[in-house]
Design goal:
alpha/beta, seven-stranded parallel sheet, binds adenosine-5'-diphosphate, binds zinc ion
């Protein structure tokens, strides 16, 4: 037998190794093995096992261990050892990862790497073993039979008897904990061990990320009719799918992505027969506060009852302790959390609990889509439109689409939830690839908040000078403070001022290595680049004309905090953004203080826009709704609408109806007009027409190619050479304009050129792409990033 192995150390290809007879029976695909590579020993994963006869260049030669496979170059080398008796990847997961590598033009090695948490992969983290003290059965018997005489006769001191009694009552405990709490020395217990009263043995102790958290158990709520219908569609419709749905079970993106030869082997076609039983994914489109989470919880309870497991994907910034508590409150110990904020040991233990089947429900950010859940029956993608599901390094996968593909391969249910679905998912409902469940009302008949749009072109000029707060917003905030209600102020820009501008010569302080203006941070009086993190003191004079008249242009959350404090001197104000949360736990602290009413006004970036449930918030103010509209990206409108809907959804989630005030300089923009009524349907209808006319996703597939390097001429030359190879071999219906500088023309010292490749299917454009990569590979000093189904084209 021959094993095809992906080595940790080599990206480009797989390697074949002979399987020694001694381990042949044990070896399974997905296992981690040690193999010789050059003069070293290397770690790798078995991707497939094939018979020697399947490789025509192999002949069998007599060797040390009987007949062994060999090529013209000599005998194949042997696998040295199996690392772990359990596979790291199931055959289905391997199939998923092979698809992923093909679809996203990445190597198998990178796909495997992103599917395992680092502490599991690196081999340095181990299970934690601690000494556990336990009374022996005889001791327990003596004590239970209430025959202290039996022990007393054995010359034990009263103190020793007391210790044994306490340890028995506690049913044992960790050596260090017992010593601390019973105030005894370890030697005292060791002596009792020697005398046969106790056992002290190493035991694997789980590092539990929820250990010191108060989890309040919750029980299922009686569902509203719309929730019940959604649950029925998710759980009841498992086999209600037409037998010939074939590939319709896949999203647009996933459907035609059956792999391309970036891999050294033929990429797999998912078995079509399997599709017959795969249920169609459900798009759960429910307005904010409509109780989507309750539907998720009950759908999970349903699959658990049937012995299945579930994965819940949550956007990175919404994966707060509060979110985890909601799931842990319902499912307790069955929950495993995978999150990069956990310690290495916790991540290691959580992953192993999942693989061992000890945890059936996994909650995590995008990489949790690969969790080795046993009998996977349901994958939930909350806030499915979130761009954070896209990984911004190789492999640039979108976890939402990977979830749909995994659901198809494993024949399990997939639920995509959102109040503002992605245009792609909406299109998949329209063409019958997804089923739609709709929650049009808020839970408990709470009304949607009323939305008011303020035209800052008029309202923003009070007393003859530009103002950041409109009169209307100030009055409304004062009103809310007077009644003890809470306010959220939203601005999607951190820092104090967005740029430092010389009023005399127009000079704007820019990062030396990125083509963006510095952001002024007042807390430490520094200029920071939000792309590369560079940090400089503010120059005393304009570097261009030596004028001291620097002005802070644009606003950031820090400046809002200061202005708000002067406008509302009695209010307790807090700020939550990436700068406010560098201290460990402070993210959670700021949120809990707000939730418990210790702060009145919370100012923040998109970190406060999503997922939070603050029942006492009755006013949300959006300070500059246009901040994200004027960027050269066709998704700007969609993103703005989504963000406004999300942040508006934080208002009026309790007893008192909510109010939203949106300040804008472009009140007529479709994204802002639609936000007035939180009307996703009408926004989607307009946006869909624009996308159709411009042949943009979901009507086409986009691959963004970015050439990067420190030497601009070289980068531009490489991009043009590539373009010359690519453009003549593109099929009809595919489209690729000449390379040009990216909107973000320079980042971290690298010049960036981009090409936006479009086609009606991914397959039609990845083939010529691979060919061009072979014909005009980027030279030394230039790198090429391939972003399939790119979400951002900056
Ligand atoms: P979404 O995720 O759709 O924004 P949530 O799941 O956070 O909404 O629900 C909003 C609020 O409504 C929560 O406080 C939740 O407990 C409550 N809720 C949800 N479903 C019901 C129900 N069937 N009956 C009563 N309250 C509910
Ligand atoms: Zn920079």
């Amino acid at each position: 037998m021959i094993a095809r192995i992906s080595l940790d150390a080599v990206r480009e290809r797989l390697f074949d190794y002979a399987v020694p007879a001694a381990i042949a029976a044990e070896l399974k695909v997905g296992m981690r093995v040690q193999v010789p590579f050059g003069s070293r020993t290397c770690c790798g994963y078995v991707i497939e096992c094939i018979a020697a006869a399947e490789r025509p260049d192999i002949v069998m030669q007599p060797g040390l261990f009987g007949d062994e496979p060999a090529t013209a170059k000599g005998r194949l080398r042997h696998i040295i050892a199996i690392d772990d008796p359990l596979p790291f990847f199931s055959p289905q997961l391997l199939q998923l990862l092979r698809w992923l590598a093909g679809y996203y033009c990445a190597s198998m090695e990178s796909a495997l790497r992103s599917a395992l948490p680092a502490p599991v992969r690196d081999g340095n983290t181990k299970a934690r073993e601690l000494l556990f003290v336990c009374a022996t059965p005889q001791t327990e018997e003596h004590l239970k039979a209430d025959s202290p005489s039996a022990i007393a006769t054995q010359k034990l001191s009263a103190r020793q008897r007391d210790l044994l009694q306490q340890i028995t009552t506690r049913q044992g405990g960790l050596l260090n904990v017992l010593c601390r709490e019973l105030k005894c020395a370890p030697e005292t217990l060791r002596r009792l061990e020697k005398q046969g009263y106790l056992t002290i043995e190493p035991q694997q102790i789980r590092r539990d990320p929820l250990a010191n958290r108060t989890i309040i158990p919750s029980s299922p709520l009686p569902l509203m009719p719309q929730q019940a219908a959604a649950l029925q569609l998710i759980c009841g419709g498992r086999h209600a799918v037409a037998a010939d749905c074939g590939r319709a079970g896949l999203s647009e993106t996933a459907a035609d992505g059956c792999g391309e030869p970036s891999l050294p082997f033929k990429a797999v076609e998912p078995p079509v027969a399997a599709a017959a039983k795969a249920p169609l994914p459900v798009l759960l489109y429910g307005v904010t506060g409509s109780g989507k989470t309750e539907v998720y919880l009950q759908a999970i309870a349903h699959v658990l009852e049937q012995g299945g497991g579930a994965i819940v994907l949550v956007p990175e910034i919404a994966l707060t302790p509060q979110t985890v508590r909601r799931f842990a409150g319902r499912f307790g110990d069955k929950i495993a959390v995978l999150h990069s904020a956990l310690s290495e040991g916790e991540r290691f233990d959580e992953w192993h609990r999942i693989r061992a089947g000890e945890a059936q429900v996994v909650v995590g950010p995008r990489s949790a889509v690969f969790a080795p859940v046993k009998n996977l029956a349901l994958i939930i993608v909350d806030e499915e439109h979130e761009p954070s599901y896209k990984q911004d390094e190789t492999p640039r996968y979108n976890a939402r689409d990977v979830a749909v593909m995994r659901g198809w391969i494993e024949k399990c249910g997939v639920v995509l939830g959102s109040a503002t679905p992605a245009m792609e998912s909406w299109e998949n409902v329209k063409n019958g690839k997804y089923r739609l469940a709709r929650l049009a009302l808020r839970a408990e008949e709470r009304p949607m908040p009323t939305v008011e749009v303020i035209d800052m072109r008029i309202e923003g000029k009070r007393d003859g000078k530009p103002q950041i707060f409109s009169r209307r917003l100030i009055d409304t905030i004062e009103d809310r403070l007077a009644t003890g209600e809470q306010v959220i102020l939203f601005l999607n820009r951190r820092g104090y001022a967005t740029s430092l501008l010389c009023t005399k010569c127009g000079f704007i302080a820019q990062c030396d290595s990125c083509s963006v203006a510095y952001t002024y941070h007042r807390t430490d009086s520094r200029l920071r680049c939000h792309i590369c993190g560079a940090c400089h003191p503010v120059p005393p004079l304009c570097p261009a004309c030596s004028d001291p008249g620097f002005r802070y242009a644009g606003i950031g959350t820090q400046r809002i905090e200061i202005i708000a404090q002067t406008c509302f001197p009695k209010a307790r104000i807090a700020r939550l953004d990436a700068d406010a949360t560098t201290r460990k736990h402070s993210h959670d602290d700021i949120l809990s203080a707000f939730r418990s009413g210790k702060t009145d006004i919370l100012i923040g970036t998109q970190m406060i826009a999503k997922g939070h449930h603050f029942p006492n918030v009755t006013l949300v103010g959006v300070l500059m709704a246009d901040a994200g509209l004027h960027i050269p990206d066709y998704r700007a409108g969609e993103r703005t609408f989504q963000l406004l809907a999300q942040v508006s959804g934080r208002s009026g989630r309790g007893e008192i109806p909510g109010h939203v005030i949106i300040q804008t300089y472009t009140p007529d923009h479709p994204a802002i007009v639609a936000s007035r009524t939180a009307d996703f349907d009408s926004f989607a209808t307009q946006e869909r027409e624009l996308r159709r006319e411009a042949w943009l996703p979901p009507f086409s597939h986009v691959i963004c190619l970015t050439f990067k390097g420190p030497d601009e001429e070289k980068v531009s030359f490489a991009a043009n050479a590539f373009f010359k190879q690519l453009s003549p071999i593109l099929p009809n219906g595919a489209d690729c304009p000449e390379p040009m500088p990216s909107p973000l023309a320079r980042a971290k010292g690298d010049y960036r050129y981009q090409m936006i490749l479009r086609g009606s299917s991914i397959r039609s454009i990845t083939r010529p792409l691979h060919k061009a990569t072979r014909l005009a590979p980027p030279p030394q000093g230039v790198s090429l990033a391939i972003d399939v189904d790119a979400l951002s084209i900056m």
